[in-house]
Every structure is written in structure tokens, then in C-alpha cells.
Amino acid sequence: MSTPAVEITGLVKKYGPKTAVDGLDLKMHRGRLLALLGPNGAGKTTTVEICEGFRRPDSGCVRVLGLDPVREGRALRPRIGVMPQGGGAYPGVRAGEMLGLVASCAAEPLDPAWLLDVLGLSSARRTPFKRLSGGQQQRLSLACALVGRPELVFLDEPTAGMDPQARRLVWDLLGALRSDGVSILLTTHLMEEAEALADDVVIVDDGRVIAEGTPSALTAEEGEAAQLRFKARPGLDTTLLTAALPEGYHVHEPAPGSYHVLGLVDPQVVSTVTSWCAQQGVLAEELHVGKRDLEEVFLELTGRELRS
Ligand SMILES: Nc1ncnc2c1ncn2[C@@H]1O[C@H](COP(=O)(O)OP(=O)(O)OP(=O)(O)O)[C@@H](O)[C@H]1O
């Protein structure tokens, strides 16, 4: 069996008194797309930068394609692609020149002109980096990560700041790469992105893994087939709605204007909820019977309060 794409055991990284990564374990198999999720400051970028060999761990063991990213960095670097958070390049370098430069360092690069075309950057190839839009800079940064035909790519918030068209274009490209057997580890704050792309999801908080699994395993309800959720104006009297439902059901408002009926959903329950809303003159919007989505799971696990 091939070595895992990434294997991390007991990783610890401190910045002065701040423990950014606190005993993190993670295993990513080859050919998978793994989404690393977590609130701001959870330790995702630090973990990714250690895998890339840009930072040294304080303790723990990290192996990327079976290699130590620090001691065996020279052997590892040609085999991985890296898209750092926020990207970056010399401000005056033209998009085409930048990609050509990165391609010239690779043994068997992809055709830079083709890659620019795939990422919708052909018309911007003569544009200096500093004059590209934020979304174009992100796409150029992604092109630089991919042009060397890496076996494994690390993408730190690859679609942050992109418009929906560009985001979908990138999703298609990542899907195609994964179909070609490339291993992809990405961080994202977009739960929709993780649900659309990821084979595996790892949720970190305070430098530790707090949940992991496939998106469908993570969103599966324990012991319940489906749940009822709807949106309406904030502050409905959930005690009254609970009283209108059969015994054993409970309604709560986890976030202002979002309502969640706890208990097994059947047609009568849906009818009771919509009738009750109608009696209050309230339109129940986005009425949804089904599993939780990843965002709901994420908020339940990491809490709803704002992180710094
Ligand atoms: N160079 C640094 N010096 C000091 N503290 C740092 C440094 N880099 C990160 N930190 C701190 O370490 C913690 C983890 O940061 P990290 O960037 O890894 O989190 P993250 O999960 O990637 O966050 P985000 O989602 O906001 O990008 C944070 O508290 C951050 O402030």
C-alpha cells in the first residue's frame, strides 16, 4: 500500500505563549481531496505551512508523501504544489511571466498558456501582478501551484475573494485534478465548497481535531431520519409552537430567524408547523426537511460566538 499523502501525529506548534497547534493528528490518503475546516485562528494555516516545510514543528511527527518536510524538503518540494493564503508575487511581474518562471523550475511542467486559458487568465497574461483583481491574483497563484504537475497540492483558502463564476471554474479544475489522482488538501471557510468538493473533512478548533469524516457521515443525524428547519422573522414564540406540536417535539431558534424542530418529522408535523405560522401571519421560508448541512454541524461543534 502506498504511503499516505499526509500523516501528522501529535503536532504541536507554539508562537511564544500562544499554542497554535496543540497535539493535532491527521491522516490523508493519496488521491483524496481533504478539506481542513475551522474557525479563524484554529491552526489550519500553521498546520499547512508545517506540511509545506515553511515552519518547523515544536514537537510531533509530520510526513508528506512519506518525507519529512524540513529534513527532506529538497526531495519533497518538486512533488508538491503550494498556494499560500493571500498568494503574492513581485508587484511588477506580468501574470504570464510569473507562471512561466515557476514552470521553468519544474521538470515536466504543464503548458503555462493552456493553464492560463483554463483559469480564464489568457487576456490578463501581460497584466502586472499588482494590477490584477484579487480574484485574478488568486487564480494566478493557483496556476503557479499546479503548473509543476504536483502529486499533492496544498491550497490555503483557494477561492477566497473569488466571484461565483471564478469559484465554480476552480471547483471544476480541482475536481478534474482529483479525477487524475492528484491529492489535494485545502482549507476553506466555505462549507458549500467543502460539501461540493471534499472526500474527507477534518474540523479543527484550538489546534486540535474535533471531528473528521466524509461530509455525509458528518452531517448524518444520530438516530433520526430527518429534521425540519425553516426561516422566518426572528423572535417567534417557540414555546407556543412547541405546545402546538405533539408531545416530545421541541422547537428552538439556534440563530436569529432560523428555527429547528427537534423530533422525528412526519407529514402531520410539517402541516402543524406551517398552519401555526399561517395563524401568526408568518411566512415560513426555506422550509427544509432533511439532514443537517455541514455549516450546521460546524456551528454545533465550534459554537456560534465570533472568533478573533
Ligand atoms: N507568526 C505568528 N506569530 C504569532 N502568532 C501567530 C503567527 N501565526 C499565527 N499565529 C497565531 O496562531 C493561531 C493559529 O493561527 P493560524 O493562522 O494557523 O489559524 P487559521 O486556522 O489558519 O486561521 P484563519 O482561518 O483566520 O486563517 C492564531 O491565534 C494566530 O493569531
From TrEMBL:
Pfam families: ABC_tran
CDD domains xref list: ABC_DR_subfamily_A
Domain of life: Bacteria
Principal localisation: membrane
UniProt KW Transferase keyword: no
UniProt GO cellular component terms: plasma membrane
Protein name: Spermidine/putrescine ABC transporter ATP-binding protein
Lineage of the organism: Bacteria, Bacillati, Actinomycetota, Actinomycetes, Pseudonocardiales
